[in-house]
Specification:
Layout lengths: L1 E3 L12 H9 L31 H18 L2 E5 L8 E4 L4 H7 L1 H9 L3 E4 L9 H4 L21 H4 L6 E6 L11 E3 L2 E6 L6 E10 L11 E10 L2 E10 L3 E3 L2 E5 L5 E4 L6 E2 L5 E6 L4 H17 L4 E6 L7 E7 L10 E8 L4 E2 L3 E4 L8 E2 L2 E2 L8 E7 L4 E6 L2 E7 L16 H11 L17 H4 L2 E3 H4 L6 E4 L1 H21 L7
Parallel strand pairs: 3-4, 3-5, 5-7, 6-26, 15-16, 15-17, 17-18, 18-25
Antiparallel strand pairs: 1-2, 2-27, 8-9, 9-10, 11-12, 12-13, 13-14, 19-22, 20-21, 20-23, 23-24, 24-25
Length: 503
């Protein structure tokens, strides 16, 4: 296929009008006729007669062709030979819902396969699908593994041929999409569906409630936080069962030789039961007003969730006793003598007043951030639990101090609306019980779906127009040869017609 590197030079071809005008302007002089007498001739007004006919048409055509060849030479023509490929494209199926995805998009996928597309799995190596085994089984069990569908996409342009069409089919569940959206060529098309009639329930956490006064031994109850997930919602409910080993409703409680207790649902993994009392030391320090909001949230946790929490508040340095949590609301460093399994303190840094929102990875009402301190530590050394709308860390730990939590804002209405949020006690509960969850972490039990506009990767229009590597051959040497031949022919013809009217 012919392509021009500098197509703008084709405008030089309009110069063919020059030899055309010159040939039209050429006027042949009339012939002189000899007469014997002028007696019969009468005097008339002098009339001008012009002969506007093209002359020397072969010479004109050669000169026009010469100008067109020069214009083509300036445009730098090349011949592009497209590389041929036996495969027309890829069809990528997410392995977690592979069979169900195929059944949902069966007409479209079958049509692509008949056109020569290759069926592969959406994973790191884009493994080809063994169609004989894939189509030969009717097993459609719900998947248990989780993955990030965005993770292998940056490798897609390296694995697949540039410009080759790719069609991706997957479920639209939130747990499969986390991190930063990749930027992909526009030749990649993504289609999703919502699995029907699917619900998930799992044990989010479980803890032992202390026995009532007067009871001894291992008596007491177990408080269970259950998560119920559907494509449209994620709801938590709470249940109470006796603190004894055995089956209780749909729960199974087991005690192990190491003294730990665990609970599970039928066919699900065991979840450890927290049998300790959460002792919290709250040091008001420089921010006694902030401490009041924490006290109110912990009081709500104790009354609503019946979580075994003991809160001790100090206005001076707490005594050196073992604590489950130390909340240090001060700019001063934490004394080394204090012993705590987990520490929460404020992050000191440059304050930003750019309005943003708080992202915790949990379903909650929007929380506005009015002020927050900027974190300059490289993020590859952090475990981020909360972020702002700009993706910057708000609550984080470092990899070398995983139990030392730093909050880049404050528990104050002047800094955010978190303390006025109804979800504040639930967020604090998750932090106290589980140490928090990373903002971009996924939960296998969370099957909420997200809108297609949220999961679709960003499209790069420029990169979508690229093609497979082509074999290009410059045509300038050929143009030079043709130009030289035409020029010689033009000169020879002009010399031959030298005795004519126009040369």
């Amino acid at each position: 296929m012919l392509q021009l590197t500098n197509a703008i030079w084709l405008w030089a071809g309009t110069a063919v009008i020059i030899p055309l005008l010159l040939h039209l302007w050429n006027i042949r002089q009339g012939k002189v006729l000899q007469v014997g007498s002028i007696q019969l001739m009468q005097q008339h007004a002098r009339q001008a007669s012009l002969n506007r006919r093209l002359t020397d048409i072969p010479l004109l055509l050669l000169r026009c062709l010469l100008i067109l060849l020069v214009a083509l030479l300036l445009a730098k023509p090349v011949w592009v030979a497209r590389s041929s490929s036996t495969k027309k494209g890829w069809v990528l199926l997410a392995p977690d819902y592979g069979k169900q995805t195929y059944q949902h998009f069966k007409p479209a996928i079958d049509a692509l396969l008949q056109q020569g597309f290759e069926l592969r799995f959406l994973e790191e190596d884009f493994t080809p699908v063994d169609t004989s085994r894939f189509f030969g089984t009717d097993k459609m069990s719900p998947p248990e593994q989780t993955g990030n569908y965005w993770a292998p996409l940056p490798k897609l342009t390296a694995k697949a041929q540039h410009g080759m069409p790719v069609y991706i089919y997957s479920a639209n569940q939130l747990r499969y999409f986390n991190g930063e959206k990749p930027v992909l060529p526009s030749n990649i098309h993504w289609f999703t569906f919502t699995p029907e009639n699917e619900t998930r329930r799992s044990i989010a956490s479980a803890w032992r409630m202390p026995p009532a006064s007067g009871q001894t031994g291992d008596s007491g109850t177990i408080r269970i936080a259950m998560a119920h997930s559907t494509p449209a919602s994620l709801i938590y409910s709470y249940h109470t069962i006796p603190f004894t080993a055995g089956n209780h409703d749909s729960f199974t409680v087991r005690r192990f030789q190491d003294g730990t207790w665990r609970i599970s649902l039928p066919g699900a993994a065991l979840v450890k039961i927290d049998t300790t009392v959460c002792r919290i030391a709250l040091y008001t320090g420089d921010y006694p007003q902030d401490a009041r909001y924490i006290q109110a949230a912990i009081t709500a946790i104790q009354s609503s969730l019946q979580l075994p929490v003991q809160l001790v508040t100090f206005s001076s340095t707490p005594p050196a006793q073992p604590y489950s949590w130390l909340m240090w609301l001060s700019a001063k460093p934490v004394p080394a003598a204090l012993q705590a399994e987990n520490v929460l303190t404020y992050h000191n840094g440059k304050t930003s007043t750019a309005a943003s929102v708080l992202q915790t990875g949990q379903p909650m009402q929007p929380v506005t951030l009015r002020q927050y301190n900027l974190v300059t530590t490289p993020e590859d050394s952090l475990r981020v639990l909360w972020r702002n709308g700009w993706g910057q860390p708000v609550l984080y730990t470092t990899l070398n101090q995983p139990h030392y939590y730093r909050l880049a804002t404050r528990f104050s209405p002047l800094w955010n609306t978190l303390t006025w949020s109804a979800d504040f006690p639930a967020l604090l509960t998750r932090l106290l019980l589980e140490g928090g969850t990373a903002a971009d972490a996924t939960d296998a039990a969370d099957i909420r779906s997200i809108d297609s506009a949220q999961l679709q990767p960003q499209t790069s229009i420029a990169s979508g127009t690229t093609h497979a590597p082509d074999n290009t051959t410059p045509l300038q040497p050929l143009c030079w040869l043709l130009t030289t031949i035409v020029l010689l022919c033009e000169r020879l013809l002009a010399h031959k017609n030298k005795g004519g009217a126009y040369a």
